[in-house]
Structure formats: structure tokens, C-alpha cells
Specification:
Elements: H1 30-43, H2 47-59, H3 64-79, H4 84-99, H5 106-127, H6 130-144, H7 155-172, H8 176-191, H9 194-200, H10 204-214, H11 218-230, H12 238-250, H13 254-267, H14 274-287
């Protein structure tokens, strides 16, 4: 698994026009091309090289927004190494940018701060730093709920996300009773808002499957994670595939585990987010992929 050596600022060929209608030629975008190249390096396990590119993008950012975008990408680069501390460091910088936008775009600014805190927390729980994960999940909910009226993201959404997260944290700690309480609270939040639930329901079997996996209920884990993968919008989720692979591995079904790890690895190839940041190196290790 090798990629050709590239330099910062490489301009890739323009995308082909759509078949149904010609499009005007797009100007080259060295920053976007460099970001894509660094993302690819992270996916291929070459994170040190990727961070050299992200550091250059941060240093050369033409605007505060561009700098925040590059800092967020740097946070995800550290996530590919399971580095909770440095992920949090760069997500905090992105949150600081969004604090400067509170007066001009308060709804989006508070939502984005909550999202960045949750993103940091997700990396940390996957890295096994449960204390930091809980801290930032709680912070994310607090910040997201500061969004002023007219709200674009309801309180019920943040309630569901927080209970979902706390259930996973409890399961990772081996506290089955606490995990069950938070699962019930997450269900209550979903049931309280049908509009929100229409978008978030597909994450509930993932939650129950995750909790079952980490509390030793492997039959339930297999069943619920399979259900999660069958739901519209989740069919190609690499993390869900990795979890189901873990369930099969724990059950002693090496062939099925390998099948799902292979799918997880391939599905995570083109993403630069917390699910891919955990799944790609995890599956690589499981498959002993160079």
C-alpha cells in the first residue's frame, strides 16, 4: 500500500464534467488538493507526513475560517494515531474560532462548538481515554444547548447524543447498570421528538449493539449491530462493520470477523473523521495489512 511522493500544493486534474450537462472549468485549488493528499496519507498510515502538510496549511491560511478548517483536519490526523491529547488540543483551537463567530452567526457558532467537542470526545472514547471522553461529551451538550432561538438543532437532539455517549462510556467502564440507564434515557429522548427521531433512530441499534458488545452480551451485539447496518444511511458505516467484526471475533468466528474487518477497512479508505480514524488503523492491525 504505497502512494507516490507528492509535494504541498500539487494541483490534481480537474474533475470530469457531468454527462448530462457541461460545467465550466473550475480553477485549481492547491489547498484543497493538499488537504486531499494529506487525508490519503492518514488513511494509509503515513500520519507524520500528513501532519507536515496540515501544519503548512495552518501556517499559510488566508482566513481564520481556513485556518480553523486546517486545524480540524490536524485534529483528525492525530485521531488516526489514537492520540486523544493532541486531537483535543486542535479541536479546542477550532472551538475558539467558532467563539469569535457567536455575534455574527450565533445558531451555527454554538452548534459547531458542540460538534467539535463531541468530535474530540469520540476520538477519546475510541482511544480508551474515558475520562476525557465524558468531559467533552458533556461540554458538547452544554455548548450546543447555548444555541439561541430560533434554534436549528433542538434540545432533544443534544439530550439523545449525550445519553448515547454516556451509555457507551459506561459500557466501556464495565458498568452495565449505568449503561442500561443511559440507554433508556436515550430511548426516551428519541420518543420525545418524532422529527429528531426520524434522523437519529438509526443510531439506536448501534448504541444497544455497542453496549452489548462491551458488556459481554455477544448474541445481542451481533443482532443489534446487524440491524444497525441494515438501516438506511448506515449500510456503509465502517465503524459499524468494525464493531460487528469485533463481535464475531469474540464469538470465535474468525472467518466472519475477517470478512467484516476487510469491509470496514475498505469503507474507511476515503473518510477523514472519527469513525475512519479509528477503523482504518484498527482493521489494518487486525488484518495485518502493511
Amino acid at each position: 500500500m504505497r502512494i507516490s511522493p507528492l509535494v504541498l500544493g500539487l494541483v490534481l486534474p480537474a474533475a470530469l464534467a457531468a454527462q448530462d450537462a457541461p460545467r465550466p472549468a473550475q480553477p485549481p485549488s492547491p489547498r484543497a488538493d493538499s488537504t486531499r493528499m494529506a487525508n490519503r496519507l492518514d488513511a494509509d498510515g503515513q500520519t507524520t507526513r500528513a501532519r507536515e502538510i496540515f501544519a503548512a496549511l495552518i501556517a499559510s491560511s488566508p482566513t481564520p475560517a481556513a485556518k480553523a478548517a486546517a486545524q480540524r483536519a490536524m485534529a483528525m490526523s492525530y485521531a488516526f494515531d489514537g492520540d486523544c491529547t493532541n486531537t483535543v488540543k486542535y479541536e479546542e483551537l477550532v472551538m475558539a474560532y467558532w467563539r469569535t463567530r457567536e455575534a455574527e452567526e450565533p445558531q451555527n457558532a454554538f452548534y459547531q462548538q458542540g460538534e467539535m467537542a463531541n468530535e474530540a470526545a469520540r476520538v477519546c472514547i475510541d482511544a480508551g481515554d474515558l475520562k476525557t471522553a465524558e468531559k467533552y461529551y458533556r461540554l458538547g451538550s452544554e455548548l450546543g444547548n447555548k444555541e439561541p432561538a430560533p434554534r436549528t438543532h433542538p434540545k432533544s437532539l443534544w439530550d439523545f447524543r449525550l445519553e448515547h455517549a454516556l451509555a457507551r462510556v459506561a459500557a466501556r467502564r464495565g458498568d452495565k447498570a449505568a449503561a442500561a440507564r443511559h440507554v433508556a434515557a436515550a430511548r426516551k429522548a428519541l420518543d420525545s421528538d418524532s422529527a429528531m427521531a426520524a434522523q437519529q433512530e438509526r443510531f439506536f441499534p448501534y448504541l444497544t449493539g455497542y453496549v452489548a458488545l462491551y458488556t459481554g452480551e455477544l448474541a445481542t451485539a451481533e443482532s443489534d449491530l446487524s440491524k444497525a447496518l441494515s438501516m438506511r444511511g448506515s449500510e456503509r458505516d465502517p465503524f459499524f462493520h468494525a464493531l460487528l467484526g469485533m463481535a464475531y471475533e469474540k464469538k470465535g468466528d474468525a472467518a466472519k470477523a475477517k470478512e467484516y474487518y476487510e469491509k470496514a477497512y475498505d469503507l474507511a479508505a476515503n473518510a477523514h473523521n472519527p469513525p475512519a480514524a479509528f477503523t482504518r488503523p484498527f482493521a489494518r492491525q487486525k488484518l495485518a495489512t502493511p
